[in-house]
Design a protein that fits this description.
three-stranded antiparallel beta sheet, two-stranded antiparallel sheet, 2 helices, alpha+beta, 5 strands
Length: about 100
């Protein structure tokens, strides 16, 4: 996740994998793949730099896990507010949730 700031000063996190594009019009507008748009105070170049840094951290972490030999035993932590189901106990992930375009 990357942190960005709304025009009212509140900070929120965006999943860079869901960013479709970033426009400077002149305000910076982040458009997600589901059509959601966020106007942020950071300039376009700063958003791009944060996405690149996020991706670099992901690659560096994956490399470090491979180097230490623990990448093949990495497990996702259970969500604290959900019960374990049989599919979770078997190590299977739940089915993906389809994305839908937001209505205007």
């Amino acid at each position: 996740m990357i942190l960005v700031t709304r025009l009212n000063g509140s900070v929120f996190a965006v999943n860079p994998d869901l960013i479709q594009r970033v426009d400077a019009t002149p305000d910076t507008v982040i458009t997600l793949v589901d059509g959601a748009k966020f106007v942020v105070t950071e300039p376009l170049t700063e958003v791009v730099e944060r996405v690149m840094a996020f991706r670099a951290r992901v690659v560096a972490t994956a490399h470090a896990l491979e180097e230490t030999g623990t990448a093949d035993v990495l497990e996702l932590p259970a969500h604290p507010h959900t019960e374990t189901t049989t599919s979770d106990a078997d190590g299977e992930l739940p089915a993906p949730v389809p994305l839908h375009r937001r209505r205007p």
